[in-house]
Write a structure and sequence with these properties.
The structure is a single chain. The chain starts with a strand and ends with a strand. Helix content is 0%, strand content 61%. By secondary structure, it is an all-beta fold.
């Protein structure tokens, strides 16, 4: 079935960069929406960025100018490039996708397993 696998998290110094990957596998027809959430311990889940076919890409104010979403359509893989990372970016990052597949009619939402990003100050 459809699965999203995340990678690319790790430990970085403030001011450093990471690129997160979200690879979708399975019998996928199309991806209408892809985005990223993050959650720090004891904090609310926060929408970081979201991209849709008709609506372009939107970023949270806290990451605008530093984070960029991209996609490799041939591999059904999305990326989140994170530059100038700060301590407040420390969180578990989750990717999600709204996609149609060969397993059922219509669109469903799928979630990655999460990847830890830790930024030292």
């Amino acid at each position: 079935q459809v699965q999203l696998v995340e990678s690319g998290g790790g430990l970085v110094q403030a001011g450093g960069s990471l690129r997160l990957s979200c690879a979708a596998s399975g019998r996928i027809f199309s991806i209408d929406v892809m985005g990223w959430y993050r959650q720090a311990p004891g904090a609310q889940r926060e929408l970081v960025a979201v991209s849709s076919r008709g609506g372009g890409t939107n970023y949270a104010d806290s990451v605008t100018g530093r984070f960029t979403m991209s996609r490799d359509n041939t591999k059904n893989t999305g990326y989140l490039q994170m530059n100038n990372l700060q301590a407040e970016d420390t969180a578990v990052y989750y990717c999600y996708a709204v996609a149609s597949s060969g397993y059922r009619e219509g669109y469903d939402t799928y979630w990655g397993q999460g990847t830890q990003v830790t930024v030292s100050s």
